[in-house]
Write a structure and sequence with these properties.
Chain A: Residues 40-148, 189-295 form the Cytochrome c domain. The complex is a heterodimer of chains A (298) and B (156). With 298 residues, chain A is mainly α. Chain A contains twelve helices and four strands. Chain A folds into two domains: 42-176, no CATH class; 189-293, Orthogonal Bundle (Cytochrome Bc1 Complex, Chain D, domain 2). The chains are: A mainly alpha (298), B mainly alpha (156). At the A-B interface, helix 10 and helix 11 of A face helix 2 and helix 5 of B.
Chain lengths: 298, 156
């Protein structure tokens, strides 16, 4: 009798645990009216596209010029949890996202949820994009409809169990999906714009901020650099503790890719520069104003 | 005590000697590698002149800008055919940062070189005509240098 009730209690608690886990891991889409009343601006959507660097991952590797707009997918990301491949997000209705609604794109970028209600993996930097303005997502949506359709099928990820279970991402998101600004306090309009470009669209922290054992950005060491996911290289510290280049030097780096001694930006940063080079100079200056403002971390 | 010091000195000497032997033993194509690295450094030097103006560190000077752009063009136009022999990559000689991919089948090193010629030509046409043109050309040159380095040079 006593034993039976203990068992029952145990079962009840276990069941409760399952229910809590189920709720916690449940995808959490945007409200239905998130985009109500917004009029998209295609030309501005192109600016958002470059600021957010979508082509760096979704265009074919080594694509240049016009080919950067063919978002057939392909870039591979090695991680301790397996290898991800960026999918086709061209305007193709079958293999790309041509049949997606604005709400669908918003849910993917701001909540990490696919149209079928599944969690997306954070190799897609939605933890950063979640801070974007809905007007910018609407503009981007309109622009993405103008890029060429491509029928290359998306390549499935190589992920071992249990990381291949999308539902498992729910717990991760519950723990790490923090959409508060990292840099707070009194900011000039230029620094505020810079914060938006660095923390949200430019997702600079996704590479330059070290990650914890579960792969989440360590906000206490914001932009302080760390090892690359394959463990072979290093992302440099770009807080003022390490990045002592002048404002003009950093602006030039984000424009032409030249370091102060006229060597070139390498690795993935070369791709980032291809994007920042397309922004208005005022935006690059805003990024630099922000970088000069973040707390130095040794 | 003295014996210990002597042993330590002997060890140090042996180590130093070993290091000396290692550097004295040159890898293949030392000259070619040194020459091409020198040409690269010469390009970086010219860009230093142009970049200082683009950044606003020094006032725009049309004559100085034109000279640097002419020099850059000259470095690009040099006959470099003898500088890149097969087997002079970084695996064959660690002094080089050139990736074997340069010589692999389907390598588009030629296209990267062509992009450099185009960018240097644009710079030569623009540098003396005003700061805005110089800045635009600077972006193109940066893309051409960086585009080749990304594909064909050991990541820094």
């Amino acid at each position: 009798m006593r034993l039976a009730s203990v068992i029952k209690g145990g079962v009840a608690i276990a069941a409760l645990g399952v229910i809590v886990a189920w709720v916690v891991t449940r995808p959490d889409p945007l409200p239905d009216d998130a985009f109500a009343g917004l009029t998209p601006d295609v030309a501005h959507g192109e600016q958002v596209f470059w600021a957010a660097g979508c082509a760096s991952c979704h265009a074919a590797e080594n694509a240049e010029g016009e080919a950067k707009l063919v978002l057939s997918g392909g870039m591979a990301f090695a991680s301790p949890f397996g290898t991800f491949y960026a999918p086709n997000i061209s305007s193709d209705p079958d293999h790309g996202i041509g049949s997606w609604s604005m709400q669908d794109l918003g849910n993917a970028m701001m909540r990490g949820v696919s149209p079928s209600g599944q969690h997306l993996y954070p190799a897609f930097p939605y933890v950063s994009y979640a801070k974007a303005e809905t007007q910018d997502i609407a503009d981007l949506y309109a622009f993405l409809q103008t890029v060429p359709a491509d029928a290359t099928p998306s390549r499935p990820h190589d992920m071992p169990f249990p990381f291949n279970i999308r539902r498992a991402m729910g717990g991760w998101k519950f723990l790490f999906f923090d959409t508060d600004w990292v840099l707070t306090g009194d900011l000039t309009p230029e620094e505020t714009r810079g914060r938006y470009l660095v923390e949200a669209l430019g997702h600079c922290g996704e590479c330059h901020t070290p990650r914890n054992a579960l792969g989440a950005m360590d906000r206490t060491r914001w932009l302080a650099g760390g090892p690359t996911p394959d463990g072979k290289g290093k992302f440099p510290n770009i807080t003022p503790a390490a990045l002592d280049w002048s404002k003009a030097d950093i602006i030039e780096y984000l424009t032409s890719g030249f370091t102060p001694d006229y060597d070139s930006a390498g690795g993935h940063m070369a791709l980032v520069v291809q994007n920042t080079a397309k922004l208005p100079e005022t935006d690059r200056a805003a990024i630099v104003a922000y970088l000069k403002k973040v707390p130095p971390v040794e | 005590m003295l014996r210990h010091l002597t042993t330590a000195a002997a060890v140090t000497l042996a180590l130093a000697g070993g290091a000396g032997i290692a550097t004295a033993q040159d890898g293949p194509f030392e000259m070619q590698i040194a020459a091409r690295q020198g040409i690269m450094a010469y390009r970086a030097l010219q860009l230093g002149t142009l970049g200082a103006m683009a950044k606003g560190e020094v006032d725009y000077d049309a004559a100085a800008a034109q000279k640097a752009a002419d020099n850059l063009m000259a470095s690009v136009a040099l006959d470099g055919s003898m500088l890149w022999p097969q087997g002079s990559d970084n695996e064959a000689n660690p002094k080089s940062e050139a990736l074997p991919a340069i010589w692999a089948d389907g390598s588009d090193i030629g296209a990267k070189g062509k992009a450099m010629v185009d960018a240097a030509t644009a710079m030569q046409a623009a540098a003396g005509t005003g700061l805005d043109g110089l800045k635009t050309a600077m972006g193109e040159v940066g893309g051409a240098c960086g585009g080749c380095h990304k594909a064909f040079r050991v990541p820094q």
